[in-house]
Amino acid sequence: MLVTSSTIRLLLCSVVDDGNKLKHVLREMANNLLGPDSDNDEDSSCSFNGEVSKPSKWNRALEIASSLDVKELLLACAEVVSDADFSAAEVLMNVLEQRVSVSGEPMQRLSAYMLEGLRARLFSSGSIIYKKLKCKEPTSSELISYMQVLYNIVPYYKFAYTSANVVIDEAMRNENKIHIIDFQIAQGSQWMFLMHNLARRPGGPPFVHITGVDDSQSAHARGGGLQLVGGRLAKVAESYGVPFEFHAAAISGSEVQLENLCIRHGEALAVNFPYVLHHMPDESVSTANHRDRLLRLVKSLSPKIVTLVEQESNTNTSAFLPRFRETMDYYTAMFESIDAARPRDDKQRISAEEHCVARDVVNIIACEGADRVERHELFGKWGMRLRMAGFTQCPLSPSVGEAINDVLKEFSPNYRLAERSGALYLGWKNRALATSSAWR
Questions:
Q1: Closest to 64 measured CA to CA, from 133, 112, 4, 8
Q2: Over the stretch 186-215, which tens digit does the pLDDT of each residue have?
Q3: CA-wise closest residue to 379 among 291, 314, 307
Q4: What is the pTM of this model?
Q5: Which of 257, 256, 233, 261 is nearest to 245 (CA)?
Q6: d(CA 428, CA 112)
Q7: Where is this region: Leucine repeat II (LRII) (predicted)?
Q8: Phi and psi (nearest 5°) for 8?
Q9: Which of 100, 188, 200, 423 has the most CB atoms around it within 10 Å of its CB?
């Protein structure tokens, strides 16, 4: 592959907004390459397969590129990938390959997956690679193990389950018949904890009806369909003395219609959206706009409470480069928080990041349109959508924050919990990573 002076000029022009250091280094790269003979592209070209010696000026340019830190290299690489400059991208990717590691520091680990995303995007194979990763998922027992590792070493799932359970428990305090629709039922573990609390109610527990919405990833992790979840929950309910019924909605959340939800008169309804609404395509993807359609459908059911937990990130409609920077910032904090809990050479941690986190990163960077399913929005945007659908936000009681603070005692003191705009924000150091809110 030839790397010409015009390529480097393009590389220089494409990164003018990425900071003084990066601009200075890339300008120096250009100056090193663009000498008196720079108009002769044949003289300044070289091969990167080792068959042709690299010119001394190009060696100097590579040295300068190598002096950049990994973050700066990734940003420069994203710029040239955005411009579809294959030559410059290959140079930077070759340098990056030597700097990333799935067992290194958090930025090195994240960079390994971001580099894969950039490579996939450059060769217009994002959706192919994403689907390939999905097809090569580990066996169900392995995937459950990796998910359990994340559940134990970082508090993001516990934040979702605990906050929603407290909200639902309080909202249903005087109800004798409860129907919970869970749009991300997974293993059903969240409701085992809730039934334990409901069993201790004065006067006895209420009747609990759960509708679980499924997806293919959850089914794969379980090694089977929703009947496994229903059976497990039924046994737990029986052990606690909770009257119980389970309804399986084996359908993607974005395809759910009223007839899938088993709505019954006389049952107080709670709807749970745990890290799932961002997978629903909106108006930027399809005229069907399943994200807002689903919210309107839920509102038409007159639920007593709706719980929403989402990642606090802005990757839905952002253009590629702002989305890349946002992904880097968000997942740097995520990888740092994981790093605090396990040694860097821990094989379980490496596998958990690869199978439970890396696919999301690749999807955000490499894919567009319907193939990009990771489409996060900030809490303010979720609030606008919910209000447009007719919902009113419910204030969270102090007991919700108290329950989360009890959970966080098990984890690093670098986790932060804050309340803003009626929602709870969970963050790592100064970066908010997830929000929990309640609506009716």
A1: 8
A2: 889 999 999 999 999 999 999 999 999 987
A3: 314
A4: 0.86
A5: 233
A6: 21
A7: 228-260
A8: -70, -35
A9: 423
